[in-house]
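Supplementary notes for students who missed Thursday's class. We covered one full example, reproduced here. Read the sequence, then the structure, then the short commentary at the end.
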Amino acid sequence: MLDFITIVSGLPRSGTSLMMQMLSAGGLPALTDDLRQADESNPRGYFEFEPVKRLRTDRGWLDQARGRAVKIIHVLLRELPTNGTYQYRVILMKRPMEEILASQRAMLKRQGKPSADEAMLAKIYTSQFAQVEEWLGAQPTFLFLPVEYHDVLKEPREVAAKIDAFLGGGLDVGVMVQAVDPTLHHQRNTT
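Structure (token representation):
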């Protein structure tokens, strides 16, 4: 069993659920509770684990995450212990901001919720993401691999092979590739 925790992170709507699907299909067990059901925004599921949301106050579940993949939103990465108790490998999903905002807008519309101030949100997200990348690079207990969402769609085999190498090998790259469904890519950058 792997003795590190594999984390899939990124901004909301950046492809984190897709990456969790790939890892799970490739043979890396996902730490998930299936409380958030699949819907039109994520027809294959969200791959979330509810205790992650309480990471600031509850870290008791981290032992369960060793040897598994868990999805953690970018702003919560800094809440993980950095004292050497755990080692982490982070797959950091990246996607053009326009697509993230368009995907969020569509999801909020489907849920009947108002849209956010997108200009402000883009500014906040850009700043947060830059800070997270800088922080990750300075942490000795973290290794991270940036993965472009569009590369996953265009070159799934190459991306899956990179991820397999990053995680130490042993994943079924062919099955990971089969988990990628480009038809689910609705919000495209048209600029």
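Commentary. The first helix runs from residue 16 to 25. Helices lie at 16-25, 62-65, 97-110, 118-137, 149-154, 156-166, 173-178. If anything here is unclear, bring it to office hours.
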